[in-house]
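Translate structure to sequence.
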């Protein structure tokens, strides 16, 4: 085959791949509309699906930001992130159920702080005891280490709390039953506002941290060029520790705010962690705003697809989206800037 013919074939493949993503999304959208029409869904039902999807997507966004924080600094995909989500919820439940003589409101607030602090400490230990000793290993080895860390933390949680599900009261009522609001025919749980508000505060806090503090700027420098950061006197090892602690805290916050809407248990982190990873990949795996957008899109799309089919199929659609993104948009839904990666 001539070079010209080879070039034309490659160009055709690139064009086909470029068109494949939008066509796949369009086909999925049409399928959702047709299935919803068969079930008699109207605008109100679709709006409810979208609203519920935004609530779930906000949790995925918090978890995805943890993936991004670690990957930016270390180049490691931290599959222990799901365990941090579980630990945040379970440690908060344990602290709230303790016999501490406090009124419910301050007790819940202190339990949440204890859950975040305890999970962040565990994240620091995971980095120092597993990732740091193997920091010069291959990326595949480091990924396997994070998977092993998740399995270990889940096993320890099973020993500590057993296999039963626990309950955390809703933040608005301090009871298991939450307030339900009706706005223009839409049903909104009061806990949803806590989820959205908490995520907004976290985003503002991260923006301030990265833009206004020396540690945040050092993390950004490591994300751009680790060797250059080291030459400027920044300890990449220390920044790796900070990134893992931050990721653990973000995962814990996600687990805590979602706990009143579900039944926390030792294995709750698996599905949430994997969906957070899907959201991070959708956002390009290097961008915090991309992770947030990926989480919201994932939550909305999977909720719409599950709404017009079966709720039990909800998890499947998340991984269908992952496959489509990896096939047609591996750099994520936003064009990530080019970055120089060096060894730790």
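Result:
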């Amino acid at each position: 085959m001539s070079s010209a013919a080879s070039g034309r074939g490659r160009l055709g493949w690139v064009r086909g791949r470029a068109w494949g993503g939008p066509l796949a999304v369009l086909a999925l959208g049409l399928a959702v509309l047709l299935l919803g029409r068969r079930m008699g869904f109207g605008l109100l039902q679709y709006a409810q699906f979208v609203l519920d999807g935004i609530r779930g997507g906000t949790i995925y966004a918090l978890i995805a930001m943890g993936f991004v924080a670690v990957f930016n600094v270390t180049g490691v995909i931290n599959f222990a992130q799901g365990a941090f989500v579980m630990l945040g919820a379970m440690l908060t439940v344990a602290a709230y159920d303790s016999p501490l003589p406090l009124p419910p409101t301050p007790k819940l607030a202190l339990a949440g702080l204890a859950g975040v602090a305890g999970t962040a400490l565990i994240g620091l230990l995971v980095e120092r005891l597993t990732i740091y000793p193997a920091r010069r290993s291959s990326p595949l080895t480091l990924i396997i280490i994070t998977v092993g860390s998740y399995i270990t933390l889940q096993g320890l949680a099973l020993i500590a709390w057993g296999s039963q599900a626990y309950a955390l009261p809703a933040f608005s009522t301090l009871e298991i039953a939450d307030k339900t609001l009706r706005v223009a025919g839409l049903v909104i749980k009061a806990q949803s506002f806590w989820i959205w508000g908490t995520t907004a505060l976290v985003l503002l806090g991260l923006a301030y941290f990265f833009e206004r503090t020396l540690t945040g700027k050092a993390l950004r420098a490591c994300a751009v060029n680790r060797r250059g950061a080291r030459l400027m006197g920044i300890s990449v090892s220390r920044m790796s520790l900070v990134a893992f602690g931050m990721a653990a805290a973000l995962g814990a916050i996600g687990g805590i705010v979602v706990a009143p809407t579900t039944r926390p248990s030792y294995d709750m982190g698996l599905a949430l962690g994997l969906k957070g990873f899907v959201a991070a990949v959708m956002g390009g795996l290097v961008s915090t705003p991309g992770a947030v957008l990926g989480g919201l899109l994932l939550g909305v799309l999977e909720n719409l697809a599950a709404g017009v089919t079966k709720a039990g199929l909800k998890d499947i659609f998340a991984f269908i989206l992952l496959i489509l993104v990896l096939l047609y948009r591996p750099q994520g839904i936003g064009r990530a800037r080019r970055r120089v990666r060096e060894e730790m």
